[in-house]
């Protein structure tokens, strides 16, 4: 395992320890309302600080981009951190949430960790070295037909400006797939695509920390990731389509008729 990936795994496990302890008494947590349907707990902040402490102890000159504390430092190496992706699930005791850590080097995804504390599932990837679930190499699914595929997504919950477009996309996906799932942690959804548990995924307007690690996992597992045109702007726009190569192409075809000027 690459030394930087080893450090990221250590950081993710440190955060997971905080999350698992807090999950034993969720009612005791202090929760703040950041915006409509957007919450942050003391667990998010403590887990994020634990991750940053581990990373900067090992690599003090590296930059950080974290969901709760924002950007710090200036370096060609930048760690992108979501300490608890799926906070709403966590606060309801719904066991579908994750820790997501990615490393960008000169803007290119280089290392990735997505860790599911509830199931002790550790997804990892280093550029050019493949993707793994725990110690097992993983690959995207080999399904060829969208009609036989299980697709992941995320519902709009803060920004409803594209709600009508999303609902039109969702309607078509329901009719042309084997099923659509919305578990509530985009990082984990993307990891599931990498592991073949989902055949594809799409969502509008995600943040960099939601998707950075998961996207590298998919690429290293033989899948494709792009924006709604299949291009590589997804990290910046947050508009993401992912899947095995055959399903990726079919997803783009389903989504294309619904794209507004704001999404093109």
What does this structure look like?
This protein has 264 residues and is of the alpha+beta class. It has two domains: 3-138, 2-Layer Sandwich (Fructose-1,6-Bisphosphatase, Chain A, domain 1), CATH 3.30.540.10; 146-259, D-Maltodextrin-Binding Protein, domain 2 (3-Layer(aba) Sandwich), CATH 3.40.190. The mean pLDDT is 93. A hairpin with a 4-residue loop joins strand 8 (121-126) and strand 9 (131-133). It has helices at residues 3-23, 42-58, 87-91, 163-176, 186-194, 208-220, 234-237, 245-255; strands spanning 31-35, 38-41, 63-66, 70-72, 77-85, 98-105, 108-116, 121-126, 131-133, 136-138, 150-153, 179-181, 200-203, 224-226, 240-243. Helix content is 36%, strand content 27%. It has eight helices and 15 strands. Helix 1 packs antiparallel against helix 2 (42-58) and helix 5 packs parallel to helix 6 (208-220). Strands 4-3-5-6-7-8-9-10 form an eight-stranded mixed beta sheet, with helices on both faces. Strands 12-11-13-15-14 form a five-stranded mixed beta sheet, with helices on both faces. A two-stranded antiparallel sheet has the order 1-2. It catalyses: a myo-inositol phosphate + H2O = myo-inositol + phosphate. This is Inositol-1-monophosphatase. GO terms for molecular function: inositol monophosphate 1-phosphatase activity; metal ion binding. It is an enzyme of class 3 (hydrolase).
Features:
alpha+beta; 5-stranded mixed sheet; Fructose-1,6-Bisphosphatase, Chain A, domain 1; globular; single chain; 264 residues; 8-stranded mixed sheet; D-Maltodextrin-Binding Protein, domain 2
């Amino acid at each position: 395992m690459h030394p930087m990936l080893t450090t990221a795994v250590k950081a993710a496990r440190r955060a997971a320890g905080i999350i698992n302890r807090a999950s034993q008494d969720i009612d005791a947590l202090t929760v703040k309302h950041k915006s409509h349907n957007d919450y942050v707990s003391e667990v998010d902040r403590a887990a994020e600080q634990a991750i940053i402490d581990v990373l900067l102890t090992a690599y003090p000159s590296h930059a950080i981009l974290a969901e709760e504390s924002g950007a710090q430092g200036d370096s060609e190496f930048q760690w992108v951190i979501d300490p608890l992706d799926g906070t709403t699930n966590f606060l309801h005791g719904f066991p579908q949430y994750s820790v997501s850590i990615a490393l960008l080097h000169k803007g290119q995804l280089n290392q990735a960790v997505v860790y599911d504390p509830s199931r002790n599932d550790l997804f990892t990837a280093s550029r050019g070295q493949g993707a793994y679930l725990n110690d097992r190499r993983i690959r995207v699914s080999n399904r060829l037909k969208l009609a036989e595929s299980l697709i992941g997504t995320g519902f709009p919950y803060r920004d409803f400006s594209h709600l009508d477009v999303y609902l039109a996309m969702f309607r078509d996906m329901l009719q042309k797939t084997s099923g659509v799932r919305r578990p509530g942690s985009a990082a984990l959804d993307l990891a599931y695509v990498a592991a073949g548990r989902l055949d594809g995924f799409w969502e509008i307007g995600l943040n960099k920390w939601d998707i950075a690690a998961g996207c590298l996992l998919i690429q290293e597992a033989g899948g494709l990731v792009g924006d709604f045109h299949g291009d590589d702007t997804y990290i910046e726009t947050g508009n993401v389509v992912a899947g095995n190569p055959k399903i990726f192409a079919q997803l783009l075809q389903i989504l294309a008729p619904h794209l507004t000027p704001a999404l093109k």
